[in-house]
Amino acid sequence: MSQPSSPGSESHKAGNPDAARFQALTRRLQQGGILAPADIRTWCHLGLELGQPGAVQHVCQSLLAAQDVHAALRPYWLFYLGTACLHQMQVEEGVLAMRQAVEALLRAPRVHQPQPVSHKLAHPRIEALLWETLAQLAAGGVRAFAHAGTLLGLVREQRLLPFDKDIDLGLLLEDIPKAHDILLRHGWRRPQPLFRIDNMATYCHGETDVVLDLCGLAAESGGPNLLGGFWINHGTPPAWQRVTRFPGPLQLELHAGPAGSVWQLQNPEHWLETIYGKAWRVPDPAFDTIIGACNLTGFSSLTQWYAYSRITNAWLNGYWEKALRLTRLVLERHTPDDALMLQAAHTLESHLASLGPDSRSA
Questions:
Q1: Which of 328, 341, 334, 303 is nearest to 94 (CA)?
Q2: Structural domain boundaries, residue 176
Q3: What whole-number distance in Å separates Cα of residue 307 and Cα of residue 152?
Q4: What's the domain count of the chain?
Q5: Which residues are CB-neighbours of 270 under 8 A, at least 6 positions away?
Q6: Residue 249 gets which letter from DSSP?
Q7: Domain-located, residue 329
Q8: Nearest to 320 by CA among 118, 165, 164, 111
């Protein structure tokens, strides 16, 4: 296997155990040492987290070029390769690698080991933090509002969705810099993004370890509607962009909240129907908004990457039910005749059918 280059100084910070572990594994690779597959997976994961996608891409390509790649390992190297490509804005190459990972999983040994779902956002302190943050932003002149999964939980269940992974706030794109300053003053920090999305900013709260996403919206040219989604590389090329369309103009109103006045959508039900469809009131924990949102304008390269990577990740981690739900979502919403997705769905259905009823997670 070819040797990786040494990581740059930005990745190796004193006192960072992940960076130290990455450096130690890198030295073993450079010295020609033999690493167990688990150590190589750890090295790839840490390399991506520490901003070394080029090194990860190089090693994965070398691993895949070998003649005797084990069927259980090929999907991992393709998954890490596809992620490394995306982090370097090689979007089409990343999509190809992720599709190859799904294809490799068709022949990989079966692993079914779903873990319990985390309910981090179910803690009442998290909802209190949401209202505090909205009030702080409103007081600072930022019209931020509960959006996406956060809005869905508050409207449908009068609480945050316990299975959600983060807090989603919508706002106009031009308000993100002002919101950034306010959040930093109130205990939030912005990690260095591994993959930059132009109209989004992600923050972590120091006390609670909760993640907050600011989702920027912009007026659509020539009409009243708003555009959201994920925009990268300054919007070029257009075929890459994951674009969603919302009804506009943005109509908000001030309401009294538990921690002060907050901005809310005038018609949150219509907003939710735009994203989730007419059945938004029916709980579906397995629904993936990034892949299946009803207001997506197409199946762009970036949306494809997220679709295939999430299917691969769920499958690799033994979440067959989730992987099947995501695969069916791609077939239903985007590419009903995709032979690879059809074969993946059939394989996952067969895997699940082989389980006893007590072995299924849902």
A1: 303
A2: 120-284
A3: 22
A4: 1
A5: 247
A6: S
A7: no
A8: 111
